[in-house]
Each structure stands twice: as C-alpha cells, then as structure tokens.
C-alpha cells in the first residue's frame, strides 16, 4: 500500500542546510532518477511528475539570496510563492520578515514537503495545491516566482498571470538560472548570484542565478 506523501518525503530525503543559504534547511535528495523511480513505484504511475520538491532550484536559490540581502523587499508584507516546490522562496521570505507566506504547487508531494520544510525552519507556510494559474492572482503584496520558465507550456501561462498581478500593484520577483523560456524583455534584472545546484539537474554545478522584477510592477517603498 502507498504511504502518505508526507511519509514518502521523509523516507526519501535528508534534512540539511542549502549551499549559499546555510540558515535554511530543507528535506533534499541527492539523486533525481532513483527518487523518480521510487515515486513511479509508489504512485503506480510511470508518468508521474519529476520530484522537483526534493531539490533547491537555481531560481529559488537566487530569490533566497536576494531576500537574505534585501529583507525590505518582503518585510511586513504578504507573500505568495508560485510553483513553490520545496517551499524555499516562501521560507526565505518568512525568515526575512514577511508577515505571511502562502506556497502553491500542483504536485501533492510538494504540498507535503512544504510544511515539513517550513517546520524545520521554524516558520509556518500555508500550502495551496491547485493550479492557481487558472484563477485570478491572489490578494497579496508580493509574488515570488522561482524557476518557472523551464517548460514552454508553463512559461506561456506564467507571464500573463504575473502581468495581471503586476497591473494590480502586486510586486513580482522572479528568480531564474537562465532557462530557455525566460521572457527577458518583460523583466528587469535587479541582482545576480553564483548559485550552487547539482549536475543531477543542470549541466553545471555553478549557475548564474538572476533575480528580476517584472517590468511595470510597483517598486518596493
Ligand atoms: C523547477 S521547480 C521550482 C521550485 C522552486 N520554486 C525553486 O525554485 O526551488 C518548478 C515547480 O513548479 C511546479 N508547477 C508546475 N506547474 C505548476 C502550476 N501550474 N502551478 C503551480 N506550480 C506548478 C512544479 O510542480 C515544480 O514544483
């Protein structure tokens, strides 16, 4: 019988600090393919999604670094973390002084990992498991979008959604390590960090993680 997603996350990951953001600990895996295989067996679904939630991605790492350096971007504000994976951006926002953080992901295993990771960092994150891109943007002050531009279909949905949020006065911060579908013309680079990920996921262990503000979104006071 399949275990709960929470039990699966705990069984297949180790809690450890992430490189470059040592104050944050996440339940992480070392290898993607064995974990994916375990997930396929667990769910009985060969087409089950990759376990994105078991890794800190370059975009999320860049956002985390930015918020550690610029806590004023989120301090006292309500934050929404789009495509949260492990919950990294939401956790970094709360540690930087955000008033609250909601994390969204369509993957039930991500939504199990997010509260586990939040708890390991002494913060509380509400996880929303649904396709929020099919709805209007939420009532929030800041949206964080870490590593959302790796796939054409998702990328095509994320930009107009973020633009609608920006038009309502929500501040939008994007983190990205140079993905193919990043809409650079609509973004203004505000910071750049060398982020260490893993060759399990990327061609190189060290990537340039950039943080952008959506053009047209309001700047932080
Ligand atoms: C590359 S991971 C990035 C995770 C995290 N933001 C980071 O930077 O570490 C992309 C995440 O997007 C999620 N995702 C894909 N489509 C989504 C959608 N429509 N709404 C919310 N999350 C989505 C995936 O499940 C995955 O967890």
Protein described:
The protein is α/β, with parallel strands linked by helices and 221 residues long. The chain has helices spanning 5-12, 32-43, 58-69, 88-95, 108-120, 152-167, and strands at residues 14-18, 21-28, 78-82, 100-104, 126-128, 142-146, 171-176, 187-196, 206-214. The strands form two sheets. The protein has a seven-stranded mixed sheet, with helices on both faces. It has a two-stranded antiparallel ribbon with strand order 1-2. Helix 1 packs across helix 5 and helix 3 (58-69) runs parallel beside helix 4 (88-95). The chain contains six helices and nine strands, in the order αββααβαβαββαβββ. 31% of the residues lie in helices and 25% in strands. It binds S-adenosylmethionine. S-adenosylmethionine is lined by residues 49, 52-53, 56-57, 59-60, 83-86, 88-89, 104-107, 110, 131-133, 146-147, 150, 154. S-adenosylmethionine binds at residues 49, 52-53, 56-57, 59-60, 83-86, 88-89, 104-107, 110, 131-133, 146-147, 150, 154.
Summarize the structure.
Helices cover 31% and strands 25% of the residues. It has helices at 5-12, 32-43, 58-69, 88-95, 108-120, 152-167, and strands spanning 14-18, 21-28, 78-82, 100-104, 126-128, 142-146, 171-176, 187-196, 206-214.
- Order of strands across the widest beta sheet? 5-4-3-6-7-9-8
Major β-sheet annotation: 7 strands, mixed
Number of helices: 6
**Mean pLDDT level:** 95
Helix content: 25-40%
List strands and helices in order, with pairings.
Layout (H helix, E strand, L loop, with lengths): L4 H8 L1 E5 L2 E8 L3 H12 L14 H12 L8 E5 L5 H8 L4 E5 L3 H13 L5 E3 L13 E5 L5 H16 L3 E6 L10 E10 L9 E9 L7
Parallel strand pairs: 3-4, 3-6, 4-5, 6-7
Antiparallel strand pairs: 1-2, 7-9, 8-9
Helix pairs in contact: 1-5, 3-4
Bound molecules: S-adenosylmethionine.
């Amino acid at each position: 019988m399949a275990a709960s997603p929470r039990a699966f996350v705990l069984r297949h990951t180790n809690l450890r600090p992430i490189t470059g953001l040592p104050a944050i600990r996440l339940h992480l895996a070392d290898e993607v393919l064995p974990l994916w295989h375990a997930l396929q067996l667990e769910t009985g679904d060969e087409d089950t999604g990759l376990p994105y939630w078991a890794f800190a991605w370059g975009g999320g790492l860049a956002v985390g670094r930015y918020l550690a350096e610029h806590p004023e971007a989120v301090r006292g504000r309500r934050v929404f973390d789009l495509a949260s994976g492990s919950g990294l951006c939401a956790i970094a926002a709360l540690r930087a002084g955000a008033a609250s953080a909601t994390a969204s992901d369509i993957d039930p295993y991500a939504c199990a990992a997010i509260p586990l990771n939040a708890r390991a960092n002494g913060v509380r994150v509400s996880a929303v498991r649904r396709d929020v891109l099919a709805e209007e943007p939420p009532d929030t002050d800041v949206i964080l979008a870490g590593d959302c531009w790796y796939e054409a279909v998702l990328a095509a949905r994320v930009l107009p959604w973020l633009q609608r949020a920006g038009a309502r006065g929500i501040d939008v911060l994007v983190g990205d390590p140079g993905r193919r579908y990043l809409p650079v013309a609509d973004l203004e680079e505000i910071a750049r960090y060398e982020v260490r990920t893993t060759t399990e996921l990327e061609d190189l262990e060290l990537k340039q993680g950039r943080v952008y503000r959506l053009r047209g979104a309001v700047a932080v006071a």
